[in-house]
Amino acid sequence: MALIRDSSDIKVADGTATVRGWVQDVRNMGGISFLTLRDRHGTLQVTMPKKKIDPELFELLTKLSRETVVSITGEVKESNQTALGLELIPTSAEVLSEAAVPLPMGVIDKVNVEMDTRLNNRFMDLRKPEVKAIFELKAMMVELIEEAVRKNGFTQVYTPKISAAGAEGGAELFKVDYFGKPAYLAQSPQLYKQILMSTGLDRVFEISPAFRAEHSNTNRHVTEFISFDCEMSWIANEEEVMGMIETIIDHVLNGLKERGKKQLEILGKEITVPARPYPMLTYSECLKMVNENGLPLKEGDDLGTEGEKIIGDIMMEKGCDLYFIIEYPEEAKPFYIMEKDGTPYSFSFDLDYRGQEISSGGQREHRYDALVARMEKKGLDPEDFSFYLDAFKYGMPPHGGWGIGIERLLVKMLDLPNIREAILFPRDPSRLSP
Ligand code: AMO
Question: Residues 103-151: pLDDT tens digits?
């Protein structure tokens, strides 16, 4: 007999199998009892006709508490009563770890459990196939990203997560005590990935945690997220960078559609792959759109959650899920972004996905003097950034790049209601555990 299903946990010899997993449920129906055993691949029905089973074994298996971990050996039979088409008639069993009663939350109960309860008991929450599926898809997504960037000549790098200066604004820095000296948790690999452009490592990528001391309790902000950063040299303009993002996201969406079929089915979701090139809207066009829809933003303002949503609704109505917003005012963008000379705008872009920013990037200012001037204009002291600026003094190619929030991408792809659904153990201003 072949394996019951594609699982190394099930071994079949002469029609006999040993299965290990969690007792999801036991139903006693008088003369017959059923035990549903769950492992990472799904569930298996253990069928126990009382008269045909050793009484001690019957007693043991029918009294097991939910979520107890067991190993059961028995005979595999074909069955048209079960989804798997198979059932197991037990001949012996061993309890490997008994689950206490009551459970902190149910795994199969159809009651709505608060997000907080779920996160407090994440080990239990993750036993639900529809929760686990999200993280299997997340892992596939990262694998697909890595495939796409490697194919395009990017080298994987790891930059420091404890640093002397932040890149994305002082208010959002987590300060740490570094042997008596102040240091900060990295908000992004921005400064380091740019330094690397001066080395001849023309194309680099990093997928790593980023920390933001953002005191906002929203469904799209957390204080620790995974940032997928790229930086590429020898670009003529930011549009080359945008083209590369498209190539990568297209590979990810197409790949997940194929490889993630089982998980997408569990979640009841479908992935749509937008046509390329993604539309481009200028910041000024967006401002006009939000103004016409009753949001009184003025030139230079951040589009904000509400503005992004208005634009998202308009774009989705036109069948566009992913679109770039380009030419932001230089004032609204960080010092490292290149100004569009002679205008108040910049060579920057955001990539929005159904009404939410998932990435920002652009062409960088690679000219030393212009970079220092831009820092000063932003009220920063170039002295504090000498480790970064030095790399621009001795030959720095034109370059650009982006940062994508991995969880935001996943949330939008799967239409999840909250970024916390896409993080195993999320961190926000009110959550530091588990
Ligand atoms: P930015 O600050 O826009 O740009 O961040 C890039 C992307 O990271 C994600 N992100 C977050 N996700 C969850 N919670 C947060 N608090 C959070 N903050 C940011 C978003 C966002 O689009 N260095 C630049 C990128 C670059 O120019 O290369 C940067 O960090 O998806």
Answer: 999 999 877 899 999 999 999 999 999 999 999 999 999 999 999 999 9
Atom number of ligand 1 nearest to Cα 223: 16
User: What residue's CA is closest to ligand 1, atom 4?
Assistant: 360
Q: Cβ distance 84 to 17 under 8 Å?
A: no
Q: What is the pTM of this model?
A: 0.95
CB of residue 348 inside a 6 A radius of ligand 1? no
* Candidate list 147, 214, 224, 239, residue with the active-site label: 214
Query: Is 431 known to be catalytic?
Result: no
pLDDT at 10 over 80: no
- Cα–Cα dist 393/301, whole Å: 33
Rg, C-alpha atoms of the chain = 27
How far apart, in whole angstroms, are the C-alpha atoms of residue 96 and residue 108?
Answer: 21
Candidates 308, 327, 339, 357; catalytic one: 357
pLDDT at residue 216 in the model: 86
* Number of Cα atoms under 13 Å in the Cβ half of residue 276: 12
Instruction: State yes or no: pLDDT of 12 exceeds 80.
Output: no
Residues 402 and 229: beta-carbon distance below 8 Å: yes
Given ligand 1 and candidates 225, 352, 353, 412, which is best to mutate, with the most ligand atoms within 8 Å of its CB? Answer: 225
Q: Which of 221, 251, 259, 431 is catalytic?
A: 221
Q: How many CB atoms lie within 10 A of CB 215?
A: 11
Residue 1 confidence (pLDDT) = 34
Catalytic residue check, 360:
yes
Helix (H, G, I), strand (E, B) or coil at 115: helix
Q: Give the residue-averaged pLDDT of 405-427.
A: 98
The position carrying tokens 């892992």 is: 139
